[in-house]
Amino acid sequence: MNYPSIFNDVIGPVMRGPSSSHCAASLRIGRICHDLMDGRISEIQIDFDPNGSLATTHKEQGSDMGLFGGFLGWEAYDERLVHSEIHLGAAGIKVNIEIKDIQAEHPNTYKITLSNPWETHQVIAISTGGGMIEVIEIDGTKVSLAGDCFLTLIYATDKQKLKTYLQQSSIFEELEIQTDEGDFLAIKSSAFLNETLIEEIKAMEGVSQVKQIKPVLPVLTGKNQTVPFITCDEMMAYNQDKNLSLWELAVRYESIRGNITSAEVLAKMEQIRIILKNAVETGLKGTQFEDRILGPQSVKFKSMMEDRKLISGDVLNRIIMYVSAIMEVKSSMGVIVAAPTAGSCGAMPGAVLGVADSLGLSDEETVQALMIAGLIGVFIAAHSTFAAEVGGCQAECGSGATMAAAAIVHLAGGNLNQSISAASMALQSSLGMICDPIGNRVEAPCLNRNVMAASNALSCANMALADYDHLIPLDEVIETMYEVGKSIPNTLRCTNLGGLSITKTAKEIEARLTQKYFYKNC
């Protein structure tokens, strides 16, 4: 099992764009394609299945933008990303996108054929939610690659001879042979093979190509990876004789999973906290972006809150303001953190930072709360999904509420059991939530639902602090969320084919934005 990382799978990536499962994931797929072609791409054919979500959302929700940036080798937070199509054209790379039956089993499937005058390669990959990906096929050979290691593909006619040669090298024990099917040997490692060995391999008879593909995730996965627990029940059992707090358990999990120190784990989360805080501050100054439905909402909210013109509820109002600010930064192509996704990037951070600031808590305590949120997200990532295309908005905003509820309990001085209870109640309250973006943009009703999710988190945290009985264990609620998601119709899972997406007004908004884009670029 490839165990989730708090920073890979739950709180991350640092990115720009409307949707992590569309934009950040596609950029990562594009970067793998870039490396596979050694950065030399002349033509690209992209195919989306008509029965998947990408057929109707790839342009407006950022898949094209992300892919193009990835083909150019950019990071997900590159400020040029909004103009990636122009830059791709300036680089002389031709792209054709078709909607055709590719027999895709996953709704977020990318089939990409890349060529230049010397070679052609094909990649099939899926976006699994929150910016996470899996490459499932390269050049017709089945693989399973998450972008969490250094990958070397050696194209050779005699792969057994090649394996024997590698086994005789001093570094073989550090390598993992991912596959030796098809035309290549795929080798995973924690760093690229040394240059001397690569040159020796290239000189071997029958070796035609050696491709080196860099990781696209911030935390690498080593060989023979282990974790101390992977469910809430396992965590409780693990902690019976240790009496660790929930944030300490989160640090323990990530440290063992990523083979990094506790100090490194906390330092990574501190970097995330700073980016989140900057997003709040940026949003509250007012944001602008042309391809956008809503203008800045949080600026007036802040003014009215400070003038005491809103109904009293200082903590909740601060949360609403913070959630709105973060979502507005996302919608204006600013830098945000998908936590756990871009579509739900405001709920958890807005709630946690809002409560921490309202209570006057330290940065250290905020980092601890974010670690707790991340650990709850690990359980969701391992046993359910963050992808609205698979599970509806319950998988995004519902997960954000669940993570935030547990974190808020800690900020309020509650204990581990109360955090778990709050998480269970918050997810129970989110079951069945659909995903139906207005105007085919991940902006509305996403903003409202992020605010609702954060409000749900605060309510459930207070209920848990008062020892309300959550009844259903968190692990069972997570499993239920996944089953409920599968029963939600495809039209209500981020396809722009149902719910608010197909109302008369939503279609008018979509047409207006499409026409505006056409005239701007023709």
Automatic annotation (TrEMBL):
Entry EC number(s): 4.3.1.17
Q: Which Pfam families match?
A: SDH_alpha
Q: Which organism is it from?
A: Aquiflexum gelatinilyticum
Domain named Serine dehydratase-like alpha subunit: which ranges? 242-500
Q: In which pathway does it act?
A: Carbohydrate biosynthesis; gluconeogenesis
**Which keywords accompany this UniProt record?**
4Fe-4S, Gluconeogenesis, Iron, Iron-sulfur, Lyase, Metal-binding
GO BP: any one term = gluconeogenesis
- Name the PANTHER family on file: L-SERINE DEHYDRATASE, L-SERINE DEHYDRATASE 1
Family classification: Belongs to the iron-sulfur dependent L-serine dehydratase family.
| Protein name per its UniProtKB record | L-serine ammonia-lyase
